[in-house]
Design goal:
It is built from 10 helices and 15 strands. It is α/β, with parallel strands linked by helices and about 325 residues long. The protein has 2 domains: about 5-235, DHBP synthase, CATH 3.90.870; about 245-335, Rossmann fold, CATH 3.40.50.11030. An 11-stranded mixed β-sheet has the order 1-8-2-3-7-4-6-5-9-10-11, with helices on both faces. Strands 12-15-13-14 form a 4-stranded parallel β-sheet. Strand 10, helix 7 (about 210-220) and strand 11 form a beta-alpha-beta unit. It starts with a strand and ends with a helix.
Protein backbone atom coordinates (compact mmCIF):
# COMPACT_ATOMS: atom_id res chain seq x y z
CA UNK A 1 0.00 0.00 0.00
CA UNK A 2 1.09 3.54 -0.72
CA UNK A 3 1.51 6.00 2.15
CA UNK A 4 -1.42 8.38 2.65
CA UNK A 5 -0.72 11.59 4.60
CA UNK A 6 -3.14 14.37 5.49
CA UNK A 7 -1.77 17.44 3.70
CA UNK A 8 -2.45 19.50 6.85
CA UNK A 9 -0.03 17.31 8.79
CA UNK A 10 2.90 19.65 9.57
CA UNK A 11 5.48 17.21 8.16
CA UNK A 12 3.47 16.25 5.07
CA UNK A 13 4.58 18.95 2.62
CA UNK A 14 8.24 18.76 3.66
CA UNK A 15 8.35 14.95 3.36
CA UNK A 16 6.66 15.09 -0.01
CA UNK A 17 9.08 17.77 -1.25
CA UNK A 18 12.05 15.69 -0.08
CA UNK A 19 10.67 12.67 -1.91
CA UNK A 20 10.25 14.67 -5.12
CA UNK A 21 13.80 16.02 -4.85
CA UNK A 22 15.03 12.45 -4.29
CA UNK A 23 13.29 11.17 -7.44
CA UNK A 24 10.31 9.44 -5.82
CA UNK A 25 6.59 9.73 -6.72
CA UNK A 26 3.95 11.83 -4.92
CA UNK A 27 0.16 11.78 -5.32
CA UNK A 28 -0.75 15.44 -5.40
CA UNK A 29 -4.10 17.23 -5.09
CA UNK A 30 -4.67 20.03 -7.58
CA UNK A 31 -7.83 22.08 -8.15
CA UNK A 32 -8.67 19.93 -11.20
CA UNK A 33 -7.79 16.30 -10.41
CA UNK A 34 -5.07 14.48 -8.43
CA UNK A 35 -1.73 14.19 -10.21
CA UNK A 36 1.00 11.54 -10.03
CA UNK A 37 4.01 13.80 -9.55
CA UNK A 38 7.78 13.56 -10.08
CA UNK A 39 10.66 15.98 -10.67
CA UNK A 40 10.24 16.90 -14.35
CA UNK A 41 14.01 17.10 -14.89
CA UNK A 42 14.74 13.67 -13.37
CA UNK A 43 14.44 11.18 -16.24
CA UNK A 44 14.31 8.04 -14.10
CA UNK A 45 11.68 9.54 -11.79
CA UNK A 46 9.56 10.48 -14.81
CA UNK A 47 9.99 6.94 -16.21
CA UNK A 48 8.45 5.66 -12.97
CA UNK A 49 5.32 7.75 -13.68
CA UNK A 50 4.90 6.15 -17.11
CA UNK A 51 5.51 2.72 -15.62
CA UNK A 52 3.06 3.18 -12.72
CA UNK A 53 0.32 4.49 -15.03
CA UNK A 54 0.93 1.97 -17.81
CA UNK A 55 1.08 4.98 -20.09
CA UNK A 56 2.99 4.88 -23.40
CA UNK A 57 6.20 6.89 -22.91
CA UNK A 58 5.58 9.05 -25.98
CA UNK A 59 2.51 10.64 -24.33
CA UNK A 60 3.71 13.97 -22.91
CA UNK A 61 3.07 15.03 -19.29
CA UNK A 62 2.13 18.45 -17.97
CA UNK A 63 4.87 20.22 -15.95
CA UNK A 64 3.55 22.11 -12.91
CA UNK A 65 5.19 25.33 -11.76
CA UNK A 66 5.27 27.03 -8.35
CA UNK A 67 3.19 30.18 -7.82
CA UNK A 68 4.60 33.59 -7.02
CA UNK A 69 6.82 36.14 -8.67
CA UNK A 70 10.18 35.27 -7.09
CA UNK A 71 13.16 33.42 -8.54
CA UNK A 72 11.30 30.13 -7.93
CA UNK A 73 7.87 31.27 -9.16
CA UNK A 74 6.15 30.36 -12.45
CA UNK A 75 7.89 33.02 -14.54
CA UNK A 76 11.26 31.48 -13.70
CA UNK A 77 9.77 28.07 -14.45
CA UNK A 78 8.53 29.20 -17.85
CA UNK A 79 12.01 30.53 -18.64
CA UNK A 80 13.54 27.23 -17.57
CA UNK A 81 11.29 25.04 -19.75
CA UNK A 82 10.14 27.16 -22.71
CA UNK A 83 12.42 28.39 -25.48
CA UNK A 84 9.93 31.01 -26.59
CA UNK A 85 6.73 32.56 -25.23
CA UNK A 86 4.40 34.23 -27.74
CA UNK A 87 2.78 37.43 -26.47
CA UNK A 88 -0.72 35.89 -26.46
CA UNK A 89 0.55 33.00 -24.29
CA UNK A 90 1.99 35.40 -21.73
CA UNK A 91 -1.35 37.21 -21.61
CA UNK A 92 -3.14 33.90 -20.97
CA UNK A 93 -0.72 33.03 -18.14
CA UNK A 94 -1.22 36.41 -16.54
CA UNK A 95 -4.99 36.11 -16.84
CA UNK A 96 -5.51 32.50 -15.71
CA UNK A 97 -2.51 31.40 -13.60
CA UNK A 98 -2.62 30.09 -11.00
CA UNK A 99 -5.53 28.08 -12.36
CA UNK A 100 -6.85 25.21 -14.49
CA UNK A 101 -5.13 26.19 -17.77
CA UNK A 102 -2.25 24.34 -19.44
CA UNK A 103 -0.25 25.98 -22.22
CA UNK A 104 1.84 24.05 -24.74
CA UNK A 105 5.02 25.98 -25.57
CA UNK A 106 8.19 25.26 -27.57
CA UNK A 107 10.58 23.38 -25.26
CA UNK A 108 14.20 24.23 -24.50
CA UNK A 109 15.87 21.13 -25.98
CA UNK A 110 18.06 20.49 -22.92
CA UNK A 111 15.20 20.17 -20.39
CA UNK A 112 12.43 17.69 -19.52
CA UNK A 113 12.71 15.60 -22.69
CA UNK A 114 11.31 12.47 -21.02
CA UNK A 115 8.42 14.36 -19.39
CA UNK A 116 7.62 15.87 -22.79
CA UNK A 117 7.41 12.38 -24.28
CA UNK A 118 10.16 13.35 -26.71
CA UNK A 119 8.09 16.17 -28.27
CA UNK A 120 9.86 19.46 -28.98
CA UNK A 121 7.20 21.22 -26.90
CA UNK A 122 6.29 21.23 -23.20
CA UNK A 123 2.96 21.60 -21.39
CA UNK A 124 3.09 24.06 -18.47
CA UNK A 125 0.60 24.93 -15.77
CA UNK A 126 0.65 26.77 -12.43
CA UNK A 127 -2.04 25.13 -10.28
CA UNK A 128 -4.28 27.07 -7.87
CA UNK A 129 -4.70 24.39 -5.18
CA UNK A 130 -3.04 25.47 -1.89
CA UNK A 131 -1.53 22.00 -1.27
CA UNK A 132 -0.10 21.81 -4.80
CA UNK A 133 1.28 25.31 -4.39
CA UNK A 134 2.85 24.54 -1.01
CA UNK A 135 4.48 21.39 -2.38
CA UNK A 136 5.74 23.09 -5.55
CA UNK A 137 7.18 25.93 -3.49
CA UNK A 138 8.89 23.56 -1.03
CA UNK A 139 10.24 21.43 -3.90
CA UNK A 140 11.50 24.54 -5.75
CA UNK A 141 13.47 25.47 -2.62
CA UNK A 142 15.21 22.08 -3.02
CA UNK A 143 16.11 22.76 -6.62
CA UNK A 144 13.10 21.19 -8.40
CA UNK A 145 12.20 23.54 -11.27
CA UNK A 146 8.93 21.85 -12.18
CA UNK A 147 6.86 18.80 -11.35
CA UNK A 148 5.61 16.50 -14.10
CA UNK A 149 2.17 15.20 -13.18
CA UNK A 150 -0.38 13.40 -15.31
CA UNK A 151 -3.72 12.60 -13.74
CA UNK A 152 -3.10 9.91 -11.10
CA UNK A 153 -5.05 7.11 -12.76
CA UNK A 154 -4.01 4.04 -14.73
CA UNK A 155 -3.88 4.80 -18.46
CA UNK A 156 -7.32 5.22 -20.05
CA UNK A 157 -9.20 5.10 -16.74
CA UNK A 158 -11.29 7.67 -14.87
CA UNK A 159 -9.22 10.50 -13.36
CA UNK A 160 -9.05 10.64 -9.52
CA UNK A 161 -10.60 13.50 -7.57
CA UNK A 162 -9.90 12.20 -4.06
CA UNK A 163 -6.82 10.76 -2.34
CA UNK A 164 -8.73 7.48 -1.88
CA UNK A 165 -9.19 7.21 -5.67
CA UNK A 166 -5.40 7.56 -6.07
CA UNK A 167 -4.75 4.90 -3.44
CA UNK A 168 -7.15 2.54 -5.27
CA UNK A 169 -5.49 3.16 -8.65
CA UNK A 170 -2.01 2.40 -7.33
CA UNK A 171 -2.81 -0.19 -4.66
CA UNK A 172 0.18 -2.19 -5.89
CA UNK A 173 2.77 0.50 -5.01
CA UNK A 174 4.57 0.34 -1.66
CA UNK A 175 4.69 3.25 0.79
CA UNK A 176 8.30 3.82 -0.27
CA UNK A 177 7.27 4.12 -3.92
CA UNK A 178 4.31 6.48 -3.49
CA UNK A 179 3.35 9.10 -0.90
CA UNK A 180 -0.17 10.47 -1.42
CA UNK A 181 -1.01 13.89 0.01
CA UNK A 182 -4.67 13.95 1.02
CA UNK A 183 -6.04 17.42 0.28
CA UNK A 184 -9.72 16.46 0.12
CA UNK A 185 -11.92 16.45 -2.97
CA UNK A 186 -10.74 18.51 -5.97
CA UNK A 187 -12.90 21.64 -6.39
CA UNK A 188 -12.91 21.80 -10.22
CA UNK A 189 -13.14 18.07 -10.85
CA UNK A 190 -12.15 17.76 -14.51
CA UNK A 191 -8.71 18.32 -16.04
CA UNK A 192 -7.31 21.67 -17.12
CA UNK A 193 -8.18 23.36 -20.40
CA UNK A 194 -5.20 22.87 -22.77
CA UNK A 195 -4.20 25.54 -25.31
CA UNK A 196 -1.44 24.92 -27.85
CA UNK A 197 0.74 28.03 -28.22
CA UNK A 198 3.38 26.59 -30.56
CA UNK A 199 1.88 27.65 -33.89
CA UNK A 200 1.69 31.42 -33.59
CA UNK A 201 -2.00 31.38 -32.64
CA UNK A 202 -3.97 29.69 -29.84
CA UNK A 203 -5.46 26.25 -30.54
CA UNK A 204 -7.81 24.51 -28.09
CA UNK A 205 -6.52 20.95 -27.52
CA UNK A 206 -8.70 19.92 -24.58
CA UNK A 207 -11.80 21.73 -23.24
CA UNK A 208 -12.01 22.30 -19.49
CA UNK A 209 -13.84 24.65 -17.15
CA UNK A 210 -12.19 27.79 -18.58
CA UNK A 211 -14.38 28.38 -21.62
CA UNK A 212 -13.19 29.44 -25.10
CA UNK A 213 -15.08 32.73 -24.70
CA UNK A 214 -13.06 33.64 -21.60
CA UNK A 215 -9.78 32.69 -23.29
CA UNK A 216 -10.65 34.72 -26.38
CA UNK A 217 -11.69 37.73 -24.31
CA UNK A 218 -8.38 37.61 -22.43
CA UNK A 219 -6.04 37.23 -25.39
CA UNK A 220 -8.06 39.25 -27.89
CA UNK A 221 -7.92 36.66 -30.65
CA UNK A 222 -10.01 33.72 -31.79
CA UNK A 223 -9.24 30.29 -30.40
CA UNK A 224 -8.90 27.79 -33.24
CA UNK A 225 -10.18 24.23 -33.14
CA UNK A 226 -7.65 21.43 -33.16
CA UNK A 227 -6.82 19.96 -36.58
CA UNK A 228 -4.55 17.27 -38.06
CA UNK A 229 -1.41 19.30 -37.38
CA UNK A 230 -2.26 19.79 -33.69
CA UNK A 231 -0.09 17.86 -31.23
CA UNK A 232 -1.54 14.56 -30.05
CA UNK A 233 -2.79 14.54 -26.47
CA UNK A 234 -3.76 11.38 -24.61
CA UNK A 235 -6.68 13.11 -22.90
CA UNK A 236 -7.87 13.78 -26.43
CA UNK A 237 -7.81 10.13 -27.53
CA UNK A 238 -11.28 9.16 -28.54
CA UNK A 239 -11.65 6.60 -25.77
CA UNK A 240 -10.44 7.77 -22.35
CA UNK A 241 -11.78 8.31 -18.83
CA UNK A 242 -13.52 4.95 -19.16
CA UNK A 243 -15.06 3.08 -16.22
CA UNK A 244 -15.35 -0.72 -16.44
CA UNK A 245 -19.07 -0.53 -17.15
CA UNK A 246 -20.07 0.69 -20.59
CA UNK A 247 -21.16 4.34 -20.62
CA UNK A 248 -23.97 5.39 -22.95
CA UNK A 249 -25.00 9.00 -23.54
CA UNK A 250 -28.65 9.71 -24.37
CA UNK A 251 -31.04 12.63 -24.37
CA UNK A 252 -33.42 12.80 -21.40
CA UNK A 253 -36.28 11.62 -23.67
CA UNK A 254 -34.33 8.65 -25.04
CA UNK A 255 -33.20 7.72 -21.57
CA UNK A 256 -36.73 7.90 -20.16
CA UNK A 257 -38.12 5.86 -23.05
CA UNK A 258 -35.45 3.18 -22.60
CA UNK A 259 -36.07 3.00 -18.84
CA UNK A 260 -39.86 2.85 -19.30
CA UNK A 261 -39.44 0.05 -21.82
CA UNK A 262 -37.34 -2.02 -19.46
CA UNK A 263 -39.46 -1.28 -16.38
CA UNK A 264 -38.59 -3.68 -13.56
CA UNK A 265 -36.14 -5.49 -15.87
CA UNK A 266 -33.71 -2.58 -15.71
CA UNK A 267 -31.04 -4.68 -14.05
CA UNK A 268 -27.33 -4.13 -14.59
CA UNK A 269 -28.02 -0.46 -15.39
CA UNK A 270 -27.05 2.66 -13.44
CA UNK A 271 -28.35 6.13 -14.28
CA UNK A 272 -26.82 9.61 -14.08
CA UNK A 273 -29.44 12.08 -15.27
CA UNK A 274 -31.10 15.31 -14.28
CA UNK A 275 -34.19 15.15 -12.02
CA UNK A 276 -36.72 15.14 -14.90
CA UNK A 277 -35.72 11.55 -15.73
CA UNK A 278 -37.69 9.18 -13.47
CA UNK A 279 -36.39 5.77 -12.52
CA UNK A 280 -39.12 3.44 -11.28
CA UNK A 281 -37.01 0.31 -10.84
CA UNK A 282 -34.53 0.53 -7.94
CA UNK A 283 -31.46 1.09 -10.11
CA UNK A 284 -28.30 2.82 -8.83
CA UNK A 285 -29.00 6.43 -9.61
CA UNK A 286 -27.29 9.82 -9.16
CA UNK A 287 -28.91 13.13 -10.03
CA UNK A 288 -26.93 15.26 -12.47
CA UNK A 289 -26.75 18.87 -11.16
CA UNK A 290 -28.21 21.65 -13.32
CA UNK A 291 -25.01 23.62 -12.87
CA UNK A 292 -22.00 22.67 -15.07
CA UNK A 293 -19.41 23.53 -12.41
CA UNK A 294 -21.14 21.36 -9.81
CA UNK A 295 -21.48 18.53 -12.30
CA UNK A 296 -17.78 18.74 -13.24
CA UNK A 297 -16.80 18.66 -9.59
CA UNK A 298 -18.60 15.38 -8.90
CA UNK A 299 -18.41 13.77 -12.36
CA UNK A 300 -15.48 11.37 -11.96
CA UNK A 301 -16.47 10.38 -8.41
CA UNK A 302 -20.00 9.62 -9.64
CA UNK A 303 -18.68 7.48 -12.52
CA UNK A 304 -16.47 5.57 -10.08
CA UNK A 305 -19.31 5.15 -7.59
CA UNK A 306 -21.80 3.89 -10.19
CA UNK A 307 -19.13 1.62 -11.69
CA UNK A 308 -18.44 0.14 -8.25
CA UNK A 309 -22.06 -1.10 -7.99
CA UNK A 310 -21.07 -3.74 -10.54
CA UNK A 311 -23.56 -2.69 -13.25
CA UNK A 312 -22.78 -3.46 -16.88
CA UNK A 313 -24.14 -0.18 -18.26
CA UNK A 314 -24.13 3.43 -17.07
CA UNK A 315 -26.77 5.48 -18.86
CA UNK A 316 -25.97 9.18 -18.77
CA UNK A 317 -28.11 12.11 -19.88
CA UNK A 318 -26.34 14.17 -22.57
CA UNK A 319 -25.41 17.49 -20.94
CA UNK A 320 -26.92 20.75 -22.24
CA UNK A 321 -25.58 22.03 -25.55
CA UNK A 322 -23.97 25.07 -23.96
CA UNK A 323 -20.30 26.15 -23.83
CA UNK A 324 -20.27 26.01 -20.03
CA UNK A 325 -20.77 22.23 -20.39
CA UNK A 326 -18.05 21.65 -23.06
CA UNK A 327 -15.58 20.12 -20.61
CA UNK A 328 -18.14 17.79 -19.00
CA UNK A 329 -19.61 16.79 -22.39
CA UNK A 330 -16.10 16.06 -23.73
CA UNK A 331 -15.23 13.75 -20.78
CA UNK A 332 -18.56 11.93 -21.03
CA UNK A 333 -18.19 11.42 -24.78
CA UNK A 334 -14.73 9.92 -24.25
CA UNK A 335 -15.98 7.75 -21.38
CA UNK A 336 -18.68 6.48 -23.76
CA UNK A 337 -16.42 5.93 -26.79
O1 LIG B 1 -5.68 19.28 -14.84
C1 LIG B 1 -4.75 18.68 -15.35
O2 LIG B 1 -4.27 19.01 -16.43
C2 LIG B 1 -4.19 17.46 -14.60
C3 LIG B 1 -3.59 17.94 -13.29
C4 LIG B 1 -2.89 16.84 -12.55
O3 LIG B 1 -2.76 19.04 -13.53
N1 LIG B 1 -3.25 16.78 -15.39
C5 LIG B 1 -3.59 16.05 -16.49
O4 LIG B 1 -2.53 15.37 -17.06
O5 LIG B 1 -4.71 15.97 -16.91
P1 LIG B 1 -2.72 14.23 -18.15
O6 LIG B 1 -1.35 13.71 -18.40
O7 LIG B 1 -3.71 13.24 -17.71
O8 LIG B 1 -3.18 15.00 -19.39
C6 LIG B 1 -2.27 15.92 -19.94
C7 LIG B 1 -2.59 16.17 -21.35
C8 LIG B 1 -2.38 14.94 -22.19
O9 LIG B 1 -3.51 14.82 -23.03
C9 LIG B 1 -1.11 15.26 -22.92
O10 LIG B 1 -1.03 14.60 -24.14
C10 LIG B 1 -1.19 16.77 -23.05
O11 LIG B 1 -1.70 17.17 -21.83
N2 LIG B 1 0.14 17.36 -23.22
C11 LIG B 1 1.10 17.53 -22.29
N3 LIG B 1 2.22 18.02 -22.83
C12 LIG B 1 1.97 18.17 -24.15
C13 LIG B 1 2.72 18.61 -25.27
N4 LIG B 1 3.99 18.98 -25.15
N5 LIG B 1 2.13 18.61 -26.47
C14 LIG B 1 0.84 18.22 -26.59
N6 LIG B 1 0.08 17.78 -25.59
C15 LIG B 1 0.62 17.75 -24.39
MG1 LIG C 1 -5.20 11.89 -17.72
Amino acid sequence: MSLLLNAQDPVAIESAARRLAAGSLVGLPTETVYGLAADADNASAVHRIFEAKGRPSDHPLIVHLAPGAGPQGWRAGVEHYASEVPAFALVLMQAFWPGPLTLILPRRPEVAAVAAGGQDSVGLRCPAHPVAQALLTAAAAQGVHGVAAPSANRFGRVSPTTAQHVAEEFAGLSDDALLILDGGACPVGIESTIVDCTRGYPVLLRPGMITPARLEAACGQPLRERDQAAPRASGTLESHYAPRAQVRLMSAQQLQAALDLLGADAKHIAVYARPAVKTLAPVPRRRMPDDAARCAQELFAVLRELDATGVRLIWVETPPDDAAWDGVRDRLQRAAA
